[in-house]
Amino acid sequence: MGIFSGFEKLGLGNIEGEALFEDPRKKETVVKKEEPKKKLQLVNEEDYLFDKKYKCPVCDSDFEARTVRTGKVKIKNVDIDLRPDYEELDQNKYDVIACPACGYAALGRYFPNLTKYQIDDIRVKICMNYKHEPCKDPVYTYEYAKRLYQLCLANAVVKKAKNSEKAYICLKSAWVIRGETQRLDPNDDDYETRKAENDAQEKELLVNALNGFAMARQTEEFPIAGMDATTLDYLMAALAVETGQRDMASKMIGEILTSRVANSRIKDKARVLKEMLMEKE
Fold it and tell me: What residue spans define the domains of the chain?
């Protein structure tokens, strides 16, 4: 199942043939996934949400989107690829802002920033074909959140977003799928099937995230996706570990550990990656 599969449900089947990254140098990666964590129970998720108002920069419509209340959720763990794992809910589900009127969608940091040419392309390739599917639940289900991320990625491809933005969408999409996998019930009859499907989807997204960030590192100026050079290098090293790119991981970890600008926190995290590499030998 590819990244673009399912776009036809949103009326965007024409996007499926598009290339994800504008890649000046092709790279291949192989992914190795982390072991899934135990199923987590979400309690009163709705209590941590509110409807935030937005104005769409494409169609000028006013709309509301479910948003997590600032400071209300606590991070209990951070995965090696910087995915925050929250105590009360999976905040990553709510990071895409999507206009229900025209289908424009983006991650919060990118939502208002569009050029005239990008707006024109979105109107032609997204808005004219978009079929809105409203969320029928008081909270976002994982299925709904994944559709939002697909729509977000479709918009990024159409507007010819920077490789870093598309890589960031792929990374956060993988995080959402990982969150869903953690919450699957091992006692369900379809557990193994659903887990295998999620694992395959997360694998593809992590590969694309690493490739996209590698291209962005070569061609874009910092900050990249809100990250400075040291943070991005660490993230790429972590993704390289996760995806089995030992040479790349080893090189980047070494550079972080010998860097004069990397802080002690990043160096400590890099040492954890180094230990993981050694354990896999």
Answer: 7-227
